[in-house]
Structure formats: structure tokens, C-alpha cells
Design goal:
The chain is an alpha+beta fold. 19% of the residues lie in helices and 30% in strands. The chain starts with a strand and ends with a strand.
């Protein structure tokens, strides 16, 4: 299986072209679209989505992630072997969240053009010319080591997203992702609040920790642990980002 994640949207042909390249190499492979609605060039959003999708796929899955504002520049094209499969895409921090949970077993820079679509790839569409064909060849059983030169996993780019910090009164964190509904996902794991009475402070507001949206009135702000396992700020039937004017990277405080 190959999963695909990108910021290409569904208006243009880019996603379909990549699938065509995959099908030319491996017409039997199953391709699952995680999302192609990552905000343009938003590596942090790509990191979050891939990290949270990875556990739901079977061993051997190839995860193809192309949010690539540095395409054609000096950033490396890489493949990473992890416990349950492989990652293929640019070395720009997209994989850093997943690798913090499932460390790299091996990493290669994609330097072998035998597994590209063309030895002279486009400077603007490595998704078509390098990443999609490499993913297809991996799913086809090509040995990982043949894809290119080995590199040290410690040299991979890390996203500059600080972790949450325990304080005397609770936990200090930040917003790491904003979803389609405008829900504000913090970087505070939900297991910190299990069995406790808690609340979140952000943007001058205090939101009580609950278990479901229905525990507050329509239009009221709420904090809860979402299905992805992170503490989240939301508004019942509303858009927390636009209404509360809280943004990616803004600080939040969780207290007990």
C-alpha cells in the first residue's frame, strides 16, 4: 500500500499525474489519499497529519508525503525505513513528528536515477519525477539500499516545534495544528489529563476540560481530548480559530 499526502489540492492535475506514474510502475498497488488539502507550503500541518495517520496502516506501507517549498533547491530527497514501513519525500521536517515516535532504522538520499521517472527531473515537480516513482518501486519490492546513498538519521531536518513543559501549576504548551473545522490542536498529550479535573487558558480565556462537544452550549468554547489523542480547543458548532483569534504557535496553559 502507498499513502499520499500533499498540499496539491484537487483543482489541478498534480495528484492524478503522480498516481499515473505509480500505476505505470506498479498497477496493482493500492493508493490511499491521506489528504491533499494541506495549506500550501505548510510543513507543520503535513508533519502533524502524517504523524497521526501513520499508526493506522499495516506493516510495509509506503508513506509518500510531498509538501515541498524547497523543491529544486538544496534540500535532500530522502527515503526512510521505519518499523512499519517507509517514508518518501523531501527532507524538510515533514517526517520529524513521526520519527519522534517511530525512530528511523535507515535513511537514504535518493541519488539513484534508475528509480526516478527520468534522470533529468523537473526542478518544480519532484513529486512526479522522483518521489512517486521511488514509492512505487519500494512497494514493488526494490531493496531499500538501492535507492541511493545512506545518510545519518541525526542529520535529518527537525521542525522547530517545542514540546510541552510541566510547570508548578500544570502544563505549558502551544498550538501545533488547526484542522478544517477551525479546532486548535495543542501539543499537550491527552493522557496528561486522564481522570483529572482540568482547564485550558489561552488568549485571555479559560475553557473547562470536557469529554464531548455536547457538554457545553452551542457557540461556547471548550477544551477536550480529540480522537487524535491531543488536547484541543474548540467551539461547539463553531470555528475556534476565527472566533478566538488563536493561531499556530500561540501558547496555551493547561491547569488542574
Amino acid at each position: 500500500m502507498i499513502t499520499m499526502l500533499s498540499d496539491f489540492g484537487d483543482r489541478d492535475i498534480y495528484v492524478g499525474v503522480m498516481k499515473g506514474v505509480i500505476a505505470q510502475i506498479n498497477p496493482q498497488v493500492r493508493v490511499v489519499d491521506l489528504t491533499h488539502q494541506i495549506p500550501p507550503q505548510n510543513i507543520a500541518a503535513a508533519r502533524f497529519c502524517l504523524m497521526n495517520a501513520y499508526p493506522y496502516f499495516s506493516d510495509g506501507t509506503v508513506h509518500l508525503a510531498v509538501v515541498d517549498p524547497g523543491v529544486g533547491g538544496t534540500r535532500r530527497a530522502i527515503a526512510v525505513q521505519v518499523a512499519n514501513g517507509y517514508l518518501v519525500g523531501p527532507d524538510n521536517g515533514t517526517f520529524s513528528g513521526l520519527l519522534s515516535q517511530s525512530p528511523a532504522i535507515a535513511v537514504v538520499e535518493l541519488t539513484n536515477p534508475d528509480y526516478w521517472r527520468t534522470p533529468q527531473p523537473s526542478k518544480t515537480f519532484h513529486g512526479r519525477d522522483i518521489f512517486a516513482p521511488v514509492a512505487a518501486h519500494l512497494a514493488n519490492g526494490v531493496p531499500f539500499q538501492e535507492l541511493g546513498n545512506p545518510i545519518n538519521s541525526a542529520t535529518l531536518v527537525q521542525m522547530d516545534i517545542s514540546g510541552c513543559i510541566l510547570t508548578e501549576t500544570g502544563i505549558a504548551g502551544s498550538i501545533q495544528y488547526i484542522d478544517h473545522f477551525g479546532n486548535l490542536v495543542t501539543n499537550i498529550p491527552g493522557n496528561y489529563v486522564q481522570g483529572k479535573t482540568w482547564y485550558v487558558k489561552a488568549a485571555g480565556l479559560t475553557m473547562t476540560g470536557c469529554e464531548s462537544y455536547s457538554e457545553v452550549e452551542v457557540g461556547e468554547a471548550i477544551a477536550l481530548v480529540e480522537s487524535h489523542g491531543w488536547v484541543e480547543i474548540a467551539i461547539n458548532r463553531g470555528n475556534a480559530q476565527s472566533q478566538l483569534q488563536i493561531h499556530l504557535g500561540d501558547t496555551v496553559e493547561l491547569a488542574f
